Amino acid sequence: MPDQDASLVRFFLTLPEPFPVPDGHVFHGVPGKHDETTPPQSVVHLRFLQSQETSRRYGSFSATARATGRFKTIPETREEKKLGELKGQYTTVVATTIDVSRPQEGEWESPQDVPAEHDPLNRCLLLISEIIRTYRVAFGVSCIVPTYELLDISVPFQRASEIVVSEDGSEGFSFDDADWGEVGILTLDHFNLPDIPQSGQVSIHHDRMGYFGDLLNMKSPLFFWLERFIEARRAFSVEGQYGAAVTLSNTASEVLLDALLASLYWEAGKSPDDVSGIFTEGRLAKRVKTNFSELLGGKWVLDGSGPVADWFQRCYKVRHRVVHGGYSPSRLEAKAALDSVLALSNFCWDRLATSRKRFPRTALMALSEDGLTRRGKWCSFMQKFSAEVAPNEDSWIRQSHEWREAVYAHLMASEQ
Residue 345 in contact with residue 315, Cβ under 8 Å? Predict the structure, then answer.
């Protein structure tokens, strides 16, 4: 029997996409891994309710119409009549479960991290996600799996102090006949508001935009590693896709490491044919522990402690489990992967700044004056090199890109 201090709680969760089951459809079960020892309070009762309301796209259509109207191309009355017909389907799940225990305050970094057996919202959401994951694989539908981060920031809920279980025809049972209290609002621990910019207003002509625009046009890996890392952060914090966050984090780290190593060999004057074997697919770990230390110095080991070892254990190995074993990492594991890649990048840039006199071109491309200054490495040597040597040489980004392309061409030829 449930604990005598237990209460019922039900959440009203509108899914990010409609789920095509009949209106009023009921499902109940226990989410996650369970067996005969699973306590009865782990059960979740779901009722799927369908509704037709103003479409989510209404706002964007309205904004478009208003923008068009600013140029006096359509009358305002026509705009209102047209927009009033926009409808959308929504699925709201009334998710009910028994709330028994709560973890100690401060034990978990974020509400998303609390295990389903302790947190009623996470328990309900886990069962919903399992149902939709099953549906999309069974029918091949590329729908969104709802996650904590994709829910509306405010979730209505109710509590009932007494647990009342009633028969509900072929559906088995329900908790609907309990004496439910007033509706409260649970504010979730995220700020994913799609209609609000994530940063302050910027100028498209800002120097930083121009610099990274040039990197993109030149297909510089310095652009692409950051792009993959930002995608990993979005998968983690906006979409709640923790497996994708791990794989994208690791992709970002591989782009960073190979780009840095290639640039160092290019600046050292190595022939692409002579070093192409180092960049053979599947040998990243070997490159890390073998080639970087001789070029940049520092601790490049894959076991023990330090930024490189942390990255290998928390990102590289976890990514291997995700990609090759279908493993679903937790939020904490995904955050550890992200953090380890950020720490690894800082370690790379610190080592490069320390070796700036050996690799001044790579240091200026990757760190610029600003990055070297922040690390206390903008010395007279770099000032003179930047002022007197750099302006008289062809584009380093273009040269290093062509050198790297020659490496890959040699690798492709050797595999044929």
Answer: no
The residue whose two tokens read 């990010």 is 16
Crossing angle of helices 207-217 and 221-237, in 10° steps, is 110
The tens place of each residue's pLDDT in the chain, 416 residues long, gives: 445 578 899 999 999 999 999 999 999 888 877 666 666 678 999 999 999 988 888 888 888 878 877 876 555 555 444 555 678 899 999 999 999 866 566 678 889 999 888 899 999 999 999 999 999 989 999 999 999 999 999 999 999 988 888 887 666 788 888 999 999 999 999 888 877 777 777 666 677 788 888 888 888 888 899 999 999 999 999 999 999 999 999 999 999 999 999 999 999 999 998 898 898 888 899 999 999 999 999 999 999 899 999 999 999 999 999 999 999 999 999 999 999 999 999 999 999 999 999 999 999 999 999 999 999 999 999 999 999 999 999 999 889 989 999 998 988 887 66
Sheet with 44-54, side-by-side order of all strands = 25-29, 44-54, 87-99, 7-14, 154-160, 184-187
d(CA 39, CA 100): 11
Nearest to 288 by CA among 260, 267, 314, 315: 260
- Buried residues in 319-355 as b, exposed as e (16+ CB within 10 A): beebeeeeeebebebbbbbbebbbbbbebbbbbbbeb
CA distances from 364 to 168, 215, 357, 411 (A): 70, 13, 11, 28
Helix (H, G, I), strand (E, B) or coil at 46: strand
Structure tokens at 191: 């700020």
Please report the sign of the dihedral spanned by the C-alpha atoms of residue 162, residue 4, residue 33, residue 126. positive
From residue 43, alpha-carbon distances to 2, 13, 23, 120 in Å are 11, 17, 22, 10
**How far is residue 314's CA from residue 338's CA, in Å, rounded to a whole number?**
9
